[in-house]
Design brief:
The structure is a single chain. This protein has 204 residues and is mainly α. It contains six helices and three strands; from the N terminus they run αααβααββα. Strands 1-3-2 form a three-stranded antiparallel β-sheet. Strand 2 and strand 3 form a beta hairpin. Helix 3 crosses helix 5.
Length: 204
Amino acid sequence: MSNQNQNQSGHHLQTTGIFEEDDEDPITEDDVGVVELYRRLESFSGQLDDFRETLQAERARREQLESQLNKSGNRLNELEEEIRRLDARTDLLELVESADEMDGKQRAIALIQHLKRAAEREQDRGRDAKSSVNREDAEAALHHPDVDRTTIYDDMRRAARLVDDESILWYESKSGGESRLKLNLEEGNLPSQVISQDVSHGGR
């Protein structure tokens, strides 16, 4: 009887072991999907790190280009200013050559053109586009032509008459040598037929 009970007990244990092994959860398609999802997430995480590094590099490159552009812009402004200085010097040299050959109208136009360049330089510096000359300034601008002082005053008044707009160019008469020819480009533009005239070499 005892042997029979032992056999039954052993059989029960074996049977139980079999059932316990059969009760383990098998790998399902859902499990495979989760593993694949984690794998993809790890891959995307790596790609995201690469994108961040690329973005940082591109930002650094953009800052470098912006810095170079600013330097180029400053250099361009310097070159433009140098060109204006050379143009003004060329105009002056041409006036030197032709000062004694110019008539009153040409001297008046030369004064207007001188004032225009001076006003534009003021504008480039961020100030109002204004300029003026007294008799001594006018003589210097014309490189001291061989004429008397009263003729220079006449040229200044003639310049104002040529423009014929006292809001832009006018002659301000004062005693003691303080009379001035004044230009204000903030109020408008000079007549094209005046500023485009060539007064070098007697207008030829």
